[in-house]
Amino acid sequence: MNMRIIVIGANAAGAKAASKAKRINPTADVTLIDRGSFISYGACGIPYFVSDTVADIKELMSTPVGVVRDAQFFKKVKGVTVKTNTEVVSIDRGTKVVHLSETTTSVKTSLEYDRLILAMGSSPFIPNIGNIDLPNILTVKSIEDAELLKNCAISGDSACIVGGGLIGLETAEALQQKGMRVTVIEMQEQLLPGVLDREMAFLVKKQLNLQGVRVMTGCKVTGFTGNTAVEKVCIGEQELPADLVVLAPGVTPNVELARAAGIEIGITGAIAVDTRQCTNDPDIFACGDCCETTHLITGNKVHIPLGSTANKQGRVAGINAAGGEATFSGIIGTSILRVFDINAGKTGLTETEALANGFEIETVLSPAHDKAHFFPGAKPIILKLIAEKSSGRLLGLQAVGEGAVDKRLDAAATAITFHATAEQLSQIDLAYAPPYSAAMDNLIVAADILKNKLIGHGRGISPHEVKRKFDDDDDFVLLDVRSPAEHMEIGIEGAKLIPLGMLREKLDELPRDKEIIAFCKVSLRGYEAQKILDAAGFKNTKFMDGGILAWPYLLRGTNTMNELL
């Protein structure tokens, strides 16, 4: 008898697992079951359909050559049987039977299996607050969600996005582009918690503000009001008008079916699997959003649902279920988004995560252009690179800016995965030509600055710490070593100007008993100033990481700011 492989869940992980299982074992009977009407679609593309960037919803369900991935496609091209609108209501591990119910007719059936793959995905987290079921309170997960959200995106109406993560911000952009007045509400004190550290997240917030999106951080939604549809969002005693609410506070793994069958649930609340994607039952595998994985830096179990991870896990689960041998070692949490004119992402650990996991670290902020500064179209990006102090091992990179951050994140992800140090990253042979990067790519420059810090040649301080010193009325000198023209055009209130070329002859103007923090546009001159002051016998000198380009607060000479809320 041919091997019988059943896959529950027919999106990223499940469709990949079923297709790979059939390729590995062509004689196997592979059945793909999903409770929905649509299968194998790109949920990550939903905001772009809402904004009309993607014109046709079918594009989210099609192959690169435009063939819709439906049941007929899987049968004819993949040799996989698909059952849609069919829910698996229980798994009998003893008899190796799954019990089914057709969602449209309630007809009950069952299927026997030799190997079972769980790819049930995740569901939007729905907070337990008042009137959450009012009409026009939507989520962003399914094709049905996409079409409903687009129909509700009425120009001139107000929309509130609950959650300032990746999907929340992408949806905020989509609705603003449809002409809506958008407010993003995030319970944490910053946007993109878990993706960016606070000072990097401020740069994203600035872009949203510039585009007319209101951002409220540190605010918890406590309920909704309305009659026939949602009308207001309650934040404590405050009420915000809302014609549309999008819930995007995160997702929860779909594990109820697995739990009922006695499949082990891990510490993250998702299904526990080994490196073969195998559960505690040797004939049952799990992949995608419903299962956890291992963080390659910390060794901890994590649940970070992304389509990229789901596809990799699905491939491994399909191979092993079909009798092959493959492993998936884990992830380092790489993620990226574009919101309006800003690209932002991270790989590895943020500073916050590294400290929480017990690492003693060094960090650097490094602004630069994404290509040679003289080349047309060069745009700024800011990198934050993190390493372990004792070993120099790279732990993480964050990148924010108008320019190309993806290639820096991908290069850093490779280096971090293979345990590279700051020294090794600084020597890596990256592609160079003016249309693509500077001769010294900003990732290389960041690694060099980090090397200097690790051996004690440079003492940096973050803009956030400098702002705190101002707020606390610390007695220090913030030294601007730019040119007088640069200083007059834009600056930081309270900074003292001494251009770098005049610093050696004006040392007597600086107090030797106070902390002196030098800065410039990107802090290259700030670092030079720190070295000059050190050589002149000053005992407490630093440079401000990232210079004025990394300063996310109010600047003299502009109306833009990223204030702490």
Structure characteristics:
565 residues, FAD/NAD(P)-binding domain, 4 domains, 15 helices, 25% helix, globular, disordered C terminus
Folded structure, characterized:
It contains 15 helices and 30 strands. With 565 residues, it is of the alpha/beta class. The protein has four domains: 4-43 and 51-122 and 252-321, FAD/NAD(P)-binding domain (3-Layer(bba) Sandwich), CATH 3.50.50.60; 137-249, FAD/NAD(P)-binding domain; 341-454, FAD/NAD(P)-binding domain (3-Layer(bba) Sandwich), CATH 3.50.50; 460-550, Rhodanese-like domain (Oxidized Rhodanese, domain 1, 3-Layer(aba) Sandwich). A hairpin with a 5-residue loop joins strand 5 and strand 6 (108-112). Helix 1 runs parallel beside helix 8 (307-321). The model is unreliable at 559-565 (pLDDT under 50).
Compile the SSE list and pairings.
Blueprint: E1 4-8, H1 12-24, E2 29-33, H2 46-50, H3 71-78, E3 81-83, E4 86-92, E5 97-102, E6 108-112, E7 115-118, E8 122-124, E9 137-139, H4 143-152, E10 158-162, H5 166-177, E11 181-186, H6 198-210, E12 214-217, E13 223-226, E14 230-235, E15 238-241, E16 244-247, E17 251-253, H7 256-260, E18 284-286, E19 293-294, E20 301-302, H8 307-321, E21 335-339, E22 342-348, H9 351-356, E23 361-369, E24 380-388, E25 394-401, H10 406-417, H11 422-426, H12 442-454, E26 460-461, H13 463-471, E27 476-480, H14 484-489, E28 496-497, E29 515-519, H15 524-535, E30 541-544
Parallel strand pairs: 1-2, 1-7, 2-3, 7-18, 9-16, 10-11, 10-16, 11-12, 26-30, 27-28, 27-29, 29-30
Antiparallel strand pairs: 4-5, 5-6, 8-17, 13-14, 14-15, 19-20, 21-22, 22-25, 23-24, 24-25
Helix pairs in contact: 1-8
